[in-house]
UniProtKB/TrEMBL annotation:
PPR repeats lie at residues 1624-1658. It is found in: Nucleus, Nucleolus. The keyword Oxidoreductase does not apply. Residues 1405-1418, 1430-1473 have a biased composition (Acidic residues). Residues 22-61, 134-144, 1520-1530 have a biased composition (Basic and acidic residues). It comes from Aspergillus cristatus. Involved in the biogenesis of rRNA. Required for the formation of 18S and 5.8S rRNA. This is rRNA biogenesis protein RRP5. Keywords: Nucleus, Phosphoprotein, Repeat, Ribosome biogenesis, rRNA processing. Residues 159-260, 276-345, 465-540, 557-631, 651-720, 835-904, 950-1026, 1058-1129, 1143-1212, 1237-1306, 1326-1397 form the S1 motif domain. GO terms for biological process: rRNA processing.
């Protein structure tokens, strides 16, 4: 900075300084300002600046409130000193000052000053008084070097570059989250050159644009089309000041930014654009293969190109618009250097892990925000880091960007001076000297992760305005605020010093005060910064108590308290109230909602300042408006809040307010934007002529929903009581159906429709205008106008019935009524057949075609291509909605129940085009018999009258279906030959499953006419009944029919019971087959009667396909009801209850399965049930769900109750197959077969208040008393037992006479070695126990004894430590695990006194060791190893139950290991295994943290620091045994025993994953799942960067934890995070291993498939592992084999041989493999690679293991080249002598193990011959 001229005019200097600071040109840099001031100075003065000038140019750093921290005396002294300096300077002594000025210039960034105007208006005198102090500060800072400075308003100057993330997108600007909790705004005009041009174009054409173009213009300028939330952008600071357009923000500072590449890339030149440089670019044009980008570098022809494959992952290429801006990475350039290749896929091209960081650069200009670089740390302080880039450019990392705000320890412990770290530039400090940049080490910034981690990202993530009950202080920044951990989550928040309390907080300290480290406070979330990943909180009580923070927090329908802020006065009085709900949030109460009744003088009831209760009616976020209601009927209503159409169901009830009354109904408003229409017919049961006479605006009605259309946002409601019409309407709706002719009386009429009351049914029907009559709309309107209310309308046809909406539509059109009588107006989809002619009315006309509706809402489509030629080109196809039309069924889609209609004669059906019919002026109706036919197949047919019953005509086959042959008789005249009219005898059918397959298309045959086919009932009528222009004739080609003179078709009257017929399957139902004996006769055959071989019923579609022939006999005929029952079973005897006897094995078909039983049908009349106890010989395998419906099984009859017609069956293999099969749970005939002490299993039959009833067998049920359920106390015992649950117990009482059988489920009864819980009488003074602190008071701690019957005692504070303890709460917390000595027992009052002094345990250990040496362990068993007390018991308590849960919390491992030697009990496996659980497993299950089987040793070895640290700890203990450890006593030899022990060990070994895993296991033993999760998360944060193996161990443990105790969502979250932080392939392998271990095979399969699709690990190991999984776990070897071709496609060629070999080995080794396939695989490899000896060796080993000796010998002969017992000439050269020796030795070893002496000698002889052949060569 240049000095200011000081002689004379002081006022001028102040004015000049003020102009320079608040001038209009805010973009000028400091150098430009200095040049402007140099004109007023002499050349001698301009060369070097002075102290005063520098101090004057720098803004003073004001404390909070703007007041000075100096006293008047200090200010005076500094002023005198400053004046002396000025005088000294003016006398010409400049040299020393120049040196000091240089120092000052180098630290200009210390006080960048405040951009506020108030700073510039401060008098000059005040600046002068601070000169000496600032000078001292500058000299001190110069000595320290570069200062760590965070970004704030004072340090941001115009020209700064900052990396930001889009946090919100508004109409006219976007908001960017900047570092250190700052937010900047980018206006619409500062985005890009392309967007500027679009804005100018819109402004220029605004006057000429039509209204229709407004939407497109607004859409083109919608910033949401150009940006997305979370997008990273580099921003250029334009200005820092208040927003002039917002008067409320006059004192608020606003950062104006620009993301235009012309500003964001300022300073960059063409040479600076090297690879990995971050550059901002805007889209110039969107091409086919990529984007042409503008880099904004002026004066050069540099352009950018971004491939379509390199765009941002979150965007679709088609959605990118011209003018959009992206932060890109330079990935290369073309040969000429004018076009640079860019990539906006920042997660990939900007990844530091892939070395995408700037390692070399031509100038420092390349280092702009967004670029990644490596920093050499020069200084590490608790508040940040200082380093250099490439040894030249200074870089700083502040507390927030280093992540130090969430660490408990200082940054100095995490980073060391001289280390290199990789980070990303986030800001520049252009005003600092020397120039420096700001860096970030935050993980999401480094990785450019735009995934939302803030509010709403997960369930644990707090939302904005959420109240956090526990915010724990983890870091204190004395001058700024505190950083807190939000509850038990992983999220971190920041509380500014101004938000710590309602009053003013001067400062905070980490060591003292209310906000010291570790303190917990209640806070409220007020914001979130995306870039910092930091929540903003407030501890101010007024903010916490405030009901709403933002408008978004206001809940529609909520009842709130508010204060009347203002009364709105209008021309008609009070128009409403403005109610203040919270600070800055107000709502409007419209005059309509002031009260239920109309208030005459509302101003008397409401006054400003009064508190009222209101309910939120609606919230409009766009207009920032809230509507309220004060109506008591709405305030006090407990009905559902209707605020969304999708939540409303017909029949629901809610109150609403009438907002509009119309002649035909009223509009009712609810909450939000939900409105409903109340028809006048639904206002009352009585007739209402004028609704305005009965209702008023603002009236509250209780209505219920009739119909809801969510897509259209329509709701119809009713005031009628729904309970009054429920039964009546229900019965009426059952009787009415579409197609009926009804009579009704008009009771309401409108311009569009008429409402009628149907006389017979009492229902309401609607007759639309278009259905009043046929003809034009004017005719229909005329007729409607003549209809009067009360008039009766006859013969109305019911079109459609919508029961849910209580809507019946009727029509009076004569054409539709006629079509209904003729049968062409169809109702069901099943009635339709291709080629049939149907009639309907047009429902809708679209560009694609015409929708034709028939009865019951049946709708078909006439596509545009099938519209008649004369109408296809006309508007609306020459038709109108509701017009009656006739069309032909063209095709049917039975799967989707859709059909296509045709209006073209030449495209009548989908079979293909037909010959064009000759055009006629007008064809007569089909009812005439003289209609001429064209192109008849039979030349003798001339007119329709020739088609008479019994006539034999020729026909041509058009198509062959499964049940019929469609033929053509003439042009547009079709016929059908039912399959039952083809064969006379069953023997004539060559293929019974496909009888019609021998027919061919266009085949001409002779057939006899039977009648006209009726598609409605699939029967045929006489020819005289034909309807329509072109009927479909029913034909027969049976030889007997063709030859008979007067044939008669078969009808139901001719069918007699017992007669035999052959028919054809027409349809398959759930439980029966429908058989056609003729076109008119159809019968029903039950599936059980379809065959004697019930196994055929397992696959109905295969063995009984539609159209197949079947021989049957009649079992029942009912001609009146048209019912015919058939059976195909040969056996005449039918199984009945009388035929069944106990022990009989009969076949049956499964008809139903439930959780309790399986129902089986044995015959027509007999059904049996299989209960759980009869399903399997092993109750654990009893699972009804494994049986499929219609499956045929053999069952054994175990009980027949003829009185109740019940049959009990058994599927036990020992019953059905062979009685010699092993039985796990034997079948009990009676309780006499049981004796006391027998162990039995059974299923709970009933859970009663007195106990359980357990079914042990079919007829044997046992009783379990409540006291026999468990050894431990069960408070809610019923919740622990469920019906059909399998339980195990021991028989305690058998009394056959009184029919009493009791069992006990107690572990102590089941296992004689069970150790009962410790009771008070088992304890004695002096005994050492372990326990858990239950409660802590000032005077002492209450301790629960482990493994006891709820025994608790007190340890007084005087017995806690050797020193005096004032407050026990300072030593212990609830949940701490301790070891205590019993001092005193008061058995009368059941009180125990404990001692925790360390000296107690030293004495106890000495005495215990001496006792054990003298007495051994026979007198008592030490229970310390099992978390309990030391109790003397009998010898039968030596063994522990393997199923007991070992509580690590009470394990005294030192005593346990000394007292449980091998001589104590050889069978005590649990005593030996307990100390060996190094990872601290979850009980006996051996919880595997690693995710790999038997991988505990690997994890232990993976810990780098384990061996050294453990050994050093042990040595220290041995050298200084006298040192006392914490309050719980010294650590025993086997590890820590409390939380404090683990925390102390972790201070010494923070990087030991083994110690962290033990700590997690310790918490899990205590049941603290959440604490174990927190420890895992803490371990991941604590373990040093670079210890990847240690961190992976923690990740795998966390995955195991979530797999066992978490749900799918938590497991998925941890898995995704693990993949981000570790090698993805490794994490996938561990996860699949975890799934397989835990038995979650399906999830393991899904994970394998995911890895395969994403190509996460295309390695041979992955494919082999997947194949092994498919072979062994999934038992799907075919899928495993299919994996090999895919593996060979994905893997490099050099791995193909090894991979193929591994797949071949699987065939040998897997139980599901095929050895022959394996041999084939190896033969293929050996044929291609005969010299690969390793392949021969592998195959030999596999064959040797397989045990086929001959195969092994042949293989040895092949590899050695031996043929027929002799060495073949020339073949021995393929093996080297050493290799041949190896194979001969291997062969000899094989023969020695399994052969005889003869074969051994033969091998030796062959070896000698082999050697000779080699010598001869």
């Amino acid at each position: 900075m240049a000095p200011i001229k000081r002689k004379g005019n002081v006022a001028e200097e102040a004015t000049t300084q003020k102009r320079a600071r608040v001038g209009a040109d805010k973009k000028d840099n400091k150098k430009q300002k200095t040049d402007a001031l140099d004109d007023t100075k002499s050349k001698s003065e301009a060369s070097k600046p002075t102290d005063l000038s520098v101090l004057r140019d720098d803004e003073p750093a004001f404390p909070r409130g703007g007041s000075s921290v100096l006293t008047p005396l200090e200010r005076k002294q500094i002023q005198i000193q400053a004046q002396k300096d000025v005088l000294f300077e003016q006398r010409g002594s400049k040299k020393s000052h120049n040196v000091e000025d240089d120092d000052d210039e180098g630290n200009d960034d210390v006080n960048m000053g405040d951009a506020d105007d108030t700073a510039a208006k401060k008098p000059r005198k005040q600046r002068k008084t601070k000169a000496a102090k600032k000078k001292a500060d500058k000299e001190a800072s110069e000595k320290k070097g570069v200062r760590v400075e965070g970004l704030n308003f004072k340090r941001i100057v115009p020209g700064s570059m900052i990396l930001g993330q889009v946090s919100s997108i508004n109409a006219h600007d976007i908001a960017l989250s900047l570092p250190n909790n700052l937010t900047g705004y980018v206006p619409l005009t500062a985005v890009s050159r392309g967007l500027e041009q679009k804005i100018e174009k819109v402004l220029n054409e605004e006057d000429n644009d039509d209204d229709s173009d407004d939407d497109s213009d607004e859409d083109s300028l919608n910033l949401k089309n150009y940006f997305y939330l979370g997008q990273y952008l580099r921003a250029h600071v334009v200005s820092v000041g208040s927003n002039p357009t917002d008067p409320s923000s006059r004192n608020r500072k606003r950062i104006e930014l620009a993301v235009d590449p012309r500003q964001a890339n300022s300073g960059l030149s063409k040479s600076d654009l090297v690879e990995n440089t971050a550059v901002q670019a805007s889209v110039v044009s969107v091409e086919d293969h990529g984007l042409v980008m503008d880099l904004g570098i002026e004066g050069s022809d540099v352009k950018g190109f971004m491939s379509s494959k390199e765009i941002d992952r979150k965007l679709e290429y088609s959605s990118i618009k011209e003018g959009a801006v992206f932060l890109c990475m330079v990935t290369g350039q073309n040969a000429s250097g004018n076009v640079f290749k860019l990539s906006a896929n920042l997660r990939n091209t900007g990844s530091i892990t892939k070395s995408h960081y700037l390692s070399t650069a031509p100038t420092i200009n390349s280092f702009l925000p967004g670029t990644a670089a490596e920093i050499l740390l020069m200084d590490v302080t608790p508040t940040g880091l200082v380093g250099k880039i490439m040894g030249m450019l200074d870089a700083t990392v502040d507390l927030v960007q280093s992540g130090g705000n969430s660490l408990k320890e200082d940054l100095t412990k995490k980073y060391r001076t001289g280390a290199k770290v990789k980070g990303r530039l986030v800001c520049t400090f252009p005003a600092s000297e020397p120039f420096k940049v700001g860096f970030s080490l935050l993980d999401h910034v480094i990785k450019f992760s735009s995934d939302d981690q803030g509010p709403g990202s997960s369930e644990e993530a707090p939302t904005i305005s959420a109240i956090v009950p526990e915010a724990t202080v983890v870091k204190v920044d004395p001058g700024l605020g505190v950083y807190v951990k939000i509850g038990s989550t992983k999220h971190t928040g920041f509380i500014h010093i101004s938000r710590l309390s309602d009053g003013q907080t001067e400062s905070v300290s980490a060591d003292k005060g209310p906000f010291k480290l570790g303190t917990t406070h209640e806070a409220r979330v007020v914001g979130y910064n995306t870039l910092d990943n930091l929540y903003l909180l407030s501890c101010e009580r007024k903010v916490i108590d405030q009901p709403f923070i933002r408008l978004e927090d206001v809940t529609i329908g909520a009842v709130v308290k508010g204060k009347v802020e203002k009364l709105l006065i209008g021309p008609n009085g009070i128009d409403g109230l403005i109610v203040s709900l919270a600070d800055g949030i107000t709502g409007l109460v419209p005059s309509m909602h002031l009260a239920d009744a109309v208030l005459q003088f509302p101003e008397k009831k409401f006054r400003e300042g009064m508190t009222i209760s209101a309910r939120i009616l609606s919230v409009n976020l766009e207009k920032r408006q809230i509507r309220l209601t004060l109506k008591k009927s709405l305030l006090n209503s407990e009905s559902a809040i209707w605020k969304d159409y999708k939540d409303i169901v017909p029949g629901a009830q809610s109150p609403g307010t009438i907002v509009n009354i119309q002649p035909h109904g009223a509009v009712v408003q609810f909450y939000g934007s939900v409105r409903a229409f109340l028809p006048v017919s639904e206002m009352s049961e009585a007739y209402i002529k004028d609704p305005s006479q009965h209702f008023r605006l603002g009236q509250v009605l209780s209505v219920h929903a009739l119909s809801v259309d969510v897509s259209l946002g329509r709701l119809t409601v009713s005031c009628k009581d729904p309970s009054t019409f429920t039964e009546t309407y229900k019965k009426a709706f059952e009787n009415i159906r579409p197609g009926l002719l009804v009579t009704g009386t008009v009771f309401e009429k409108s311009g569009d429709d008429v409402l009628l009351k149907l006389d017979e049914f009492g229902l309401v029907a609607r007759l639309d205008l278009h259905h009043v009559s046929d003809g034009s709309t004017s005719k229909q309107s005329s007729l409607l106008s003549k209809i009067r209310v009360g008039q009766k309308l006859n013969e109305l046809l019911v079109l459609d019935i919508q029961r849910a909406h209580r809507l019946i539509r009727v029509t009076s059109k004569a054409s539709l009524k006629k079509a209904a009588k003729q049968g062409s107006l169809r109702e069901d989809f099943e009635d339709l057949e291709e080629g049939t002619e149907v009639t309907g009315f047009i429902r809708n006309i679209t560009f694609d075609g015409i929708f034709v509706e028939m009865l019951g809402g049946l709708v078909g489509l006439v596509p545009k291509r099938l519209v008649s030629e004369e109408n296809v080109t006309k508007p609306e196809f020459g038709m109108a909605v509701s017009q009656t039309v006739t069309a032909t069924v063209h095709s049917l889609d039975t799967d989707f129940r859709r059909f296509i209609l045709s209006m073209r004669p030449d495209e009548a059906t989908s079979a293909g085009p037909k010959k064009q019919a000759p055009k006629k002026a007008k064809e007569p109706r089909a009812s005439g018999d003289n209609v001429a036919v064209a192109n008849a197949v039979d030349e003798g047919v001339q007119t329709m009258s020739d088609f008479t019953f019994g006539r034999i005509v020729k026909c041509k086959v058009q198509s062959v279906k499964a049940t019929q042959v469609n033929v053509q008789l003439a042009e547009n005249i079709q016929g059908r030959i039912d399959v039952s009219e083809v064969f006379d005898k069953l023997e004539d059918i060559k293929d019974r499953k496909q009888p019609l397959r021998h027919f061919r298309q266009k085949e001409i045959m002779s057939a006899r006419i039977l009648g006209v086919h009726d598609a409605r009932n699939h029967k045929f009528l006489p020819v005289s009944h034909r309807t329509g222009k072109y009927p479909v004739y029913e034909l027969s080609i049976k030889p007997s029919f063709l030859q008979a003179a007067n044939p008669q078709p078969l009808n139901l009257e001719q069918v007699q019971v017992g007669s035999s017929w052959f028919g054809f399957i027409n349809n398959i139902a759930d439980d029966s087959l429908w058989i056609n004996l003729s076109p008119n006769v159809r019968g029903r055959m039950r599936l059980m009667d379809a065959s004697d071989d019930l196994s055929l019923l397992a696959d109905i579609d295969k063995h009984f396909p539609i159209g197949s022939a079947i021989e049957a006999h009649v079992t029942a005929v009912d001609t009146e009801k048209g019912r015919l029952d058939l059976s195909a079973r040969k056996r005449s005897d039918k199984l009945s209850l009388d035929d069944l006897s106990v022990g009989m094995v009969v076949p049956g078909r499964v008809t139903k399965t439930t959780e309790k039983q399986v129902l089986m049908q044995l015959s027509d009349t007999v059904v049996g049930a299989v209960n759980l106890v009869d399903m399997a010989d092993d109750y654990e395998k009893a699972n009804p769900t494994v049986y499929r419906k219609n499956e045929v099984l053999c069952a054994c009859v175990v009980g027949v109750d003829k009185a109740n017609k019940r049959v009990s069956l058994s599927l036990r293999p020992s019953r059905v197959l062979s009685s010699s099969l092993p039985v796990q749970d034997r079948e009990l005939a009676s309780m006499k077969e049981l004796k006391v002490n027998d162990v039995v299993r059974g299923f709970i039959r009933r859970v009663a208040d007195s106990g359980l009833f357990v079914a042990l067998s079919h007829d044997v049920t046992a009783y379990v008393r409540i006291s026999d359920l468990s050894d431990s106390y069960l408070k809610e015992w019923k919740e622990a037992f469920q019906v059909d649950q399998l339980v195990k117990g021991r028989v305690t009482l058998v009394d056959p006479e009184q029919n009493k059988l009791q069992i006990s489920l107690k572990d102590s009864v089941l296992d004689p070695n069970y150790k009962a819980p410790v009771t008070l009488r088992d304890l004695k003074p002096g005994q050492i126990v372990t326990g858990k602190v239950r409660k802590v008071e000032e005077f002492g701690a209450f301790i629960d004894v482990d493994n006891s019957a709820r025994i608790s005692g007190l340890c007084h504070r005087s017995e806690m430590a050797e020193k005096r303890v004032e407050d026990a709460r300072t030593l212990f917390e609830e949940g701490d695990v301790v070891k205590a000595k019993i001092l005193k027992i008061d058995r009368a009052q059941e009180k125990i006194s404990f001692g925790l002094k360390a000296s107690y345990f030293k004495d106890a250990e000495d005495s215990e060791s001496s006792d054990e040496e003298e007495d051994g362990s026979e007198d008592g068993v030490s229970l310390d190893g099992f978390g309990g007390a030391e109790v003397e018991e009998s010898d039968d308590e030596e063994d522990e139950d393997e199923d007991d849960d070992v509580s690590m919390g009470g394990v005294d491992l030192e005593d346990g290991s000394e007292g449980s030697g091998s001589e104590e009990s050889e069978d005590d496996e649990e005593m030996e295994d307990a100390p060996s659980k190094k990872t601290g497993g979850l009980g006996d299950g051996g919880f595997d943290w690693s995710g790999n089987v038997n991988d505990d040793e690997d994890e232990a070895a993976a810990s780098n620091s384990e061996g050294e640290d453990d050994s050093s700890r042990k040595k220290k203990k041995s050298r200084k045994p006298e040192i006392q450890v914490d309050r719980t006593g010294e650590l025993d030899a086997n590890g820590p025993q409390s939380v404090a022990d683990y925390e102390r060990l972790l201070l010494g070994e923070p990087d030991s994953s083994l110690l962290w895993l033990k700590y997690m296991a310790f918490q899990l033993e205590l049941g603290e799942i959440e604490k174990a999760r927190e420890i895992a998360e803490r371990a991941l944060r604590t373990i040093t960067i670079g210890q990847d193996t240690e961190k992976l161990n923690i990740w795998v443990a966390l995955l195991n934890l979530e797999n066992t105790y978490g749900d799918d969502e938590t497991l998925d979250d941890v898995f995704k995070r693990a993949c981000q932080y570790n090698d993805t392939q490794e994490v996938y392998e561990r996860m699949t291993s975890i799934y397989i271990q835990s038995g979650k095979i399906e999830k393991a399969e899904d994970l394998f498939q995911t890895a395969l699709k994403k190509k996460i690990s295309p390695t041979p190991k992955f494919f082999v592992n997947y194949a092994s999984f498919l072979f062994d776990s999934m038992a799907a070897p075919d899928r495993g084999r299919a994996l090999l071709p895919r593996a060979l496609q994905s893997l490099p060629s050099h791995t193909h041989v090894e991979t193929t070999s591994k797949f071949g080995q699987l065939e040998f080794r897997s139980q599901n493999g095929d050895i022959e396939r394996g041999r084939t695989v190896f033969e293929g490899l050996l044929s291609s690679f005969p010299k690969k000896i390793d392949l021969w060796n592998i195959l030999l080993d596999l064959e040797i293991k397989n045990g086929d000796a001959e195969q092994v010998r042949r293989l040895f002969e092949r590899v050695l080249g031996i043929q027929k017992g002799a060495v073949a000439a020339g073949t021995g050269k393929k093996l080297r002598p050493k290799q041949a020796k190896f194979f001969f030795k291997k062969w000899l070893d094989f023969e020695e193990k399994g052969g005889n002496e003869k074969t051994i000698e033969e091998i030796k002889a062959k070896a000698a011959d082999y050697v000779k052949s080699l010598q001869q060569e």
